[in-house]
Amino acid sequence: MSETDQTCDLLVIGLGPGGEALASGAAEAGLRVVAVDKHLVGGECPYYGCVPSKMMVRAADLLAEAGRVAGVAGSVTVEPSWAPVATRIAEQATDHWDDAVAVDRLREAGATVLHGTARLAGPGRVEVEAPDGSSTSYAVERGVVLNPGTRPARLPIPGLEGTPYWTNRDAVKVTSLPSSLVVVGGGPIGCEMAQVFARFGVRVTVLEAGPRILGPLEPEASEALAEVLVHEGVRVMVGVTIASVAHADGQFSLEVDGETVTAEKLLVAAGRTPNLDDLGLETVGLDPGARSLEVDERLRLTGAEGVWAIGDVTGKGAFTHVSMYQSAIALRDVLGQDGPPASYHALPHVTFTDPEVAGVGLTEHQARERGLRVQVGSGGLGSRGWLHGPGGDGLVKLVADADRDVLVGATVVGPAAGEVLGHLALAVHAEVPLPTLRSMIYAYPTFHRAIEAALGDLS
């Protein structure tokens, strides 16, 4: 093992979307930037998350739409095939899981890009271990940005370890489909994957430990999606305990509340673990066993001068758009520029099932927990939902602070719910007065016109 000493202005650990954007921006601004990732430059999103999974969702949605032709537009015969999906993911989305394009993009911006494991080694110092075992020590003059991301959680279920179960990383790489699949976890990833595989003819069972799928969201949204999944043939089991997992003769067997649930494949999509345990946090006085890193409104790490943190590990929302939002704020701070501080009161999120489930801000339960005087209004998708026909069911739910007369949260379920949410995200973010929202003209017949009816129901 050889060790050399180098100097740089800024060292970025973890090159998911936010880290990559920050490293590129800092390098273009003239800083000497070293950017390090132990896996693929670009992170989870383009290779295993948002991008390939939404290609899967799009394909499954097309199959569902074809099945809705009868009674609306005639008849159609469809023969599902996974081959185009796998090809599109490998060739168009991930370049066969090769990050050369992303690396070149960063280097062209002026950054030094390294594959390896980077660890803090005290204030202003970082050790980078290359894949061949060699090590380089960096003296960092401006600071360090932490963007290590998360990995699939390892569940302490007896018998699970050692079996060939899938995580999201395996699910997006499959080239042929199993006959049956058990999905552990009824969160966004689990629900999206369950619906995708079911629509391609896989027998799917979802196991959720909580009382409902999409547990943190509005109960009405969870119930609406659960009804659709069941209607499409997915078995949804909630409030369950998995006592054990076994794998033999090409089949998984799970003991679930006294029942044996079997399937050819098992997808574990129940939570993520922050990559904080091998960062050297203890060398700057922080806890390596922490679940998240405490940051201020400029993304400066509390208790460690000259260190910023962005992305999933800040605990502000495990979404690509949060990481990108934070990266812009942290970059301004690194460069000594002023600008708006971070604010998360209007954080939007979308689960890309069919119907889509989208939300922003607080749920009704969260608003009441905060002691607000809450008003709630809701309604269906109105005339556009009826005109849409099959697949056009959904809802809009609004949560208002009666004392300030503004929306503090909203949920939309239905076709293009994520797009309808844009109107409501702006209203929550800008604290648009309710009378102003009520005085608007809502185009007919649109899905977003359902907002007007929900506003009328606020009470």
> Which spans have pLDDT < 50 for at least 5 consecutive residues?
none
CATH architecture classification name of the largest domain: 3-Layer(bba) Sandwich
Structural shape: globular
Share of residues in helices:
25-40%
How many domains, as an integer?
Answer: 3
What is the CATH class name of the largest domain? Alpha Beta
How many runs of DSSP E, i.e. beta strands? 21
Which percent band covers the strand fraction? 25-35%
Give the C-alpha Rg: 24 Å
* Quaternary organisation of the protein chains: single chain
CATH superfamily of the largest domain: FAD/NAD(P)-binding domain
Write the CATH fold name of the largest domain.
Answer: FAD/NAD(P)-binding domain
For the largest beta-sheet, the strand count, sense and barrel status come to: 7 strands, mixed
Structural class: alpha/beta
Model description:
The protein is an alpha/beta fold and 459 residues long. The chain folds into three domains: 3-42 and 99-151 and 273-334, FAD/NAD(P)-binding domain (3-Layer(bba) Sandwich), CATH 3.50.50; 168-270, FAD/NAD(P)-binding domain (3-Layer(bba) Sandwich), CATH 3.50.50.60; 348-456, 2-Layer Sandwich (Enolase-like, domain 1). The protein has 14 helices and 21 strands. The longest helix is centred in the N-terminal third of the chain and has 18 residues, at 50-67. Belongs to the class-I pyridine nucleotide-disulfide oxidoreductase family.
